[in-house]
Amino acid sequence: MSTDLPKAVTPEQIEAAAALLDAGQLVAFPTETVYGLGGDAADPDAVARIYAAKGRPANHPVIVHLPPGGDPGYWVDSLPDDARKLIDAFWPGPLTLILKRAAHIPDAVSGGQDTVALRCPSHPVAQALLAAFSARRGGHGGVAAPSANRFGHVSPTTAQHVRDEFGDTVHVLDGGPSEVGIESTILDLSRGFPALLRPGHVTPQQIADVLGRAPRLPDGSDATAPRASGTLKAHYAPRTPLALLPFDVLEPLLAAAHAAGERVALVARASCAGRWAQADDVHFVAAPEDPQAYARDLYCMLRTLDRAQVARILIEKLPDTVEWIAVNDRLGRAAAAFEAQE
Predict the structure, then answer these.
(1) What is the domain extent for residue 199?
(2) Which of 126, 168, 181, 274 is the most exposed place for a label (fewest CB within 10 A)?
(3) Residues 70 and 188 in one domain
(4) Looking at the structure, do residues 175 and 26 belong to the same domain, yes or no?
């Protein structure tokens, strides 16, 4: 990605935003994944403001964002060889590493755990902001930045999405739409072996290619894993009820809704949708066939469907393959928010 600032963001705006962070205030800014709600990671009061703004549980950790050339060693007890290899391969980029936290780092960013999550984003606005803030802290500044939305809801991929969540209560840097569209891959290295805690744009195979061994994949049995951002069962949910099911299970639901005169949304591959793609009482969205395109469009699509005045969002379940692991993860957690209501 380009390191040049987009025309909508000036160096003066970057410095003003860095000054706000330096004063303990919050700034929403773009990354290549989603927009983040940032505060000084070394200031427990600033981190508390993030939690309060989002309505986020205090034991749910956040990710510390570092500028290119920043020193991850400042934040951790030690930097293992595996971490160095992955940093060289994927930073700046959408990979978060969980490592043992250095003793001098407040535990507010880790939800009281002895670990810390670190990443270096590749978006030029994020990089400029992080570099400006870090310079104010002698080269050791980091910004804690979960997604800039209310806790558990759909993540934002544009500045307008952030404004829709917080109005004018949060300062926003507008860097255009996020290119990846879903949150970073989270890899735990704090226990002596690599374990994938949240799938994302960086795939298990890419990680295996760098480390020479495959990471442990999330299967619900890793009881010793540290808590990590975005890994609760129900997350990323729109406000409109959502169901994720194979298309042959969705069809009776579509028929029942049609019989009841209920308007619903359908997200499915065009090859499967059949007559429902043209039905008057169905808001049809043709699902991208490519996993990366689906990921890029996902959150914007869900936010659009929240405004579409439909009673329910019905989404065709995607192939259960490693290529779709990240999108399936987000859709599964979004659907889980409504399963108790079934």
Answers:
(1) 11-211
(2) 168
(3) yes
(4) yes
